[in-house]
Input
Amino acid sequence: MKGIQGCGLGLRREFLFDALASQNSPAWWEITPENWMHMPYAYREAFETIASTKPLVAHGLSLSIGSPDPLDITYLLNLKAFLDRYGITHYSEHLSFSSLHGRQTYELLPLPMTLSMATHVANKLKKVQDFLGRAVILENATYYHVPYSEMREIDFLLTVLERSGAKMLLDINNVYVNATNHHFDAKRFIDAIDSHHVAYMHVAGHTLYEEENLIIDTHGESIIDDVWALVAHTCKRIDAPIMIERDNDVPSWEEMKEEFTTLHTIVKGARGA
Output
């Protein structure tokens, strides 16, 4: 697969056919394998056309890397077959867990930020990487309450990366959400991450619940100015590919292109290229 560079976009069924017909599609696409491994026939031809023309990155939801459960071998077999079929070399997941006692919650739940958990995640990551024959890229997740923690989020994250050898998917919106909800400096968090750790980056919208004074990472709103400013700050020192995620209340392809143009303009301005 060709390496990814520049600005990408999350591929969604809501605009799949419009994107296929467009002359202004992004340099690369991110796809959620759980949504495409068993896709309806009506989408398959369009998906395979896109997969044959642009690089794909897979961003999973069900690995549950922090769970005490053993790895789901059936899921990994299906995942590997999908990645191999479409020549996808970049595979990312969330630093979280979503299953327990064999039951899948389909929620990205926070992990205790402890040294023992960092070691547990790193050891499981090595097994997954060996099984898939690919590096696993880990995304920083949002959280609203984390019990039993003994480390700061940034220290927990960097410990996992160093012990596993994994690269990072830096979600800039997630940093903003956590920084706002837990009252820390988003720019200092990002500045603590060495650029060589970062494989690629996400930016997305979120929802503010004013009565609760809480921000939720919904991927269902337009990206706000403060997050765009954090994107500009990040791109000045981290020269990694970056993309927009939109999972809920997905707008038209025309609206997605407008937001993508904003991303491209901000990245170009920050990097001077």
Remarks:
- DSSP finds ten helices and twelve strands in the chain.
- The CA atoms of residues 179 and 186 lie 5 Å apart.
